[in-house]
Amino acid sequence: MQVSEVLAPQLRRLGRAVVDGVLPPRCLACGTIVDEPDALCSPCWAGMTFFAPPWCAICGLPFPHPMGEEAVCADCARQKPSWDRARAVMRYDKHSRHLVLALKHGDRTHVARALGRWMGRAGVELLDGADIIVPVPLHWTRLFTRRYNQAGLLAHAVRAAGGPPVMPDGLVRRRRTPSQGRLGPAARARNVRGAFAVRRGRDVKGKRIVLVDDVLTTGATVEECARVLRRAGAAFVGVLTLSRAVRAGG
Q1: Contact assessment for residue 236 and residue 84, using Cβ atoms and an 8 Å cutoff
Q2: Is the pTM of this model over 0.85?
Q3: CATH number, domain containing residue 136
Q4: Is the distance from CB of 104 to CB of 92 less than 8 angstroms?
Q5: In what order do the strands lie in the sheet with 236-244?
């Protein structure tokens, strides 16, 4: 073994100690000092609701008790979505909202690296065998204002964590839709109808695709994205999000 191979880990630890002494790692959510970079403090970790089985085999909705690996929720049994499967890291609620909005509107783009690793673990069954990741796009006017697409940052972070290649321009948002925040499910679906298009259909046909976004609320946006990808010939469409809104009792 060469001397450099022995010294390299020690030098990395020393460099890390120096950096942490000047810029100590902080909680991704609240900013308090923590022991490790890209981590949550104990209170923030305890407040987050991370999804895990048992859940709906299609949409990933958590079940209160085991119901079998292929069990589906009432919504998916009533009407199967255009996408095949969806998974999310955590519940979108008062505890996770600050972390999600810090990335989306707070310019804290550095948190995407850790969040992408979380998404890679949560979506392993979608990513295994997938050909490409396609982020849900912003309209160019909103992208110009915000300067980055949070879904794109997460997509590249999932790629860095071992996921498939990213096709950042796989979808284009053809028109600027009003904010979905105050709209109900039916209004959200109408709002995004026809808003997306596949940019290069030949690169989508026959491919297994994973759509990436930050939040799944009613699912209207990813439903429309999946619909146009299916129409272009995609063989499989998975949906991977950082968080998911779950209605009370759901």
Answers
A1: yes
A2: yes
A3: 3.40.50
A4: no
A5: 85-91, 236-244, 208-216, 132-135
HEC assignment per residue over the chain = CCHHHHHHHHHHHHHHHHHHHHCCCECCCCCCECCCCCCCCHHHHHHCCECCCCECCCCCCECCCCCCCCCCCHHHHHCCCCCCEEEEEEECCCCCHHHHHHHHCCCCHHHHHHHHHHHHHHCHHHHCCCCEEEECCCCHHHHHHHCCCHHHHHHHHHHHCCCCCECCCCEEECCCCCCCCCCCHHHHHHHHCCCEEECCHHHCCCCEEEEEEEEECCCHHHHHHHHHHHHCCCCEEEEEEEEECCCCCC
Asked whether residue 250 is assigned to any structural domain, the reply reads: no
Residues forming beta bridges with residue 90, ordered by sequence position: 50, 243
Q: What's the CA gap between 181 and 240, in Å, rounded? A: 20
* Residue among 72, 49, 46, 45 nearest 60 (CA): 72
Mean pLDDT by 10-residue block, N- to C-terminus, for the chain (250 residues)? 53 48 80 91 94 94 88 93 96 92 85 95 96 95 89 97 96 81 72 86 94 94 96 97 82
**Cα Rg for the chain, rounded, in angstroms?**
19
Q: Is 197 a domain residue?
A: yes
Tell me, yes or no, whether 38 and 55 share the same domain. no
